[in-house]
Amino acid sequence: MTRPTLSIAVAVIAISPLAAHSAVNVTSFINNDTTSTIHVIQPAALTTLLERNAVVVDEPANVADGDSDDETAGNASHRSAGYRVQVFSDNNQRTAKGEARSKEMQIKEAFPEYGTYIVYNSPFWRLKVGDFKTQHEAEAAADAIKSRFPAFAREVRVVRDRVNARR
Q1: Domains of the chain
Q2: What's the whole-model pTM score?
Q3: What is the rounded distance in angstroms from the CA atom of residue 83 to the CA atom of residue 158?
Q4: CA dist., res. 151 & res. 145, Å (int)
């Protein structure tokens, strides 16, 4: 007695921002059936979460005009490409969060004009400082942080990031 076999091909879908606005059609290849389709609908909130690919733990510590950037709600309309100074990055789950918060308090005290951001992007906890339009501005801030906190100098670096737009 022979058993019937069933061949299944798995389609991998790359999620794109376009998928948030329209359904993606995937042709079914089960038993060579090309007439069936599967509709995959992706909510806009999922697209925003996937594009961000990071969880922001703390919001900016101080914003000049009193408005805060609501990154957790996906309000990216006031954000643009720019630079930040990364002061800390570690993946030790026992100590990294506490160390990031400790360094954040020291930076806030010494440089109240810069916003501070603690970001968890598994498995790393990172502390980033400032919202700079140009790399030159960020490098100047990095030099100031290095001179004020020589113990942090080894980890201080300028990184490209989505920053809060100045109004």
Answers
A1: 1-53 (no CATH), 55-164 (3.30.70.1070)
A2: 0.55
A3: 7
A4: 10
